[in-house]
Amino acid sequence: MLGYNPFELGDYVKGAVTRDVSGIEMRRYYRFRGGRWYGGVATGDVVGCNLRCKFCWSWRYSHYTDKGFFYTPQQVFETLTDIASSKGYRYVRLSGGEPTISWNHLIQLLKLFSQTNYKFILETNGLLIGRYNEYAKQLTNYNNIIIRISFKGTSAEEFTTLTGAKSEYFEYQFKALENLLAYGMRPGEDFYPAIMLSFTTDENYAMFRKRLAKIHPILTQTIDEEYVILYPHVVEILNKNKIKPRVAFTPNNIPQYMI
Predict the structure, then answer these.
(1) What is the three-class DSSP state of 147?
(2) For 76-128, how does the pLDDT look when each residue is reduced to its tens digit (9 = 90+)?
(3) For residue 71, what are the domain limits?
(4) What is the CATH number of the domain that holds 88?
């Protein structure tokens, strides 16, 4: 069968982007920044991912593992709080690659932010939260977290087309939502789905929404709809993979109808 196992890939990537020093898990980051998303957020962009999305805006850092520098949770906490406090932000987040690969690092960071008034946004593809019930259970310990599960396509077939991974692993994204709900997290408030729509059809999107409604109706009302933004490095990876979005946007937010 064509495609790769993202859990096996994640284990390999973890070995390159994490480092244990005296019992503390360090993680590679390639930058820290403030930005306009979520009305203003301090962001730590991590290196390495367990997927190889063919449209990824951070592919130079998420597809490769020798970039950036190692940071402890304490160092990340201090850097993000410095950015947030200087800009007057309410939110902090991890983005770029896949934050859940370095689970112990992530949990230590959540513990640090649980002692503050900041809201912590975890942007994740959800695969590991879907695989491990205990991950979802651990996340319920933090009442300042918002979990954004970013679906890679509206169907198993799209998932494989867009990521190159085996189609059966698409189900773990839905399982992540189910696990979070099962442990008492509030849909639409504590967690919600995001979906890449640049490559899908209206029919497939409608089927995706029906699937979400079976988990909880609120999830269909809180979808974060994503589209490709045509930064030069994104155009480069689209051309490299020979895929073309139906709808995309320029960096100036101008829609481009490409198919």
Answers:
(1) strand
(2) 999 999 999 999 999 999 999 999 999 999 999 999 999 999 999 999 999 99
(3) 6-226
(4) 3.20.20.70
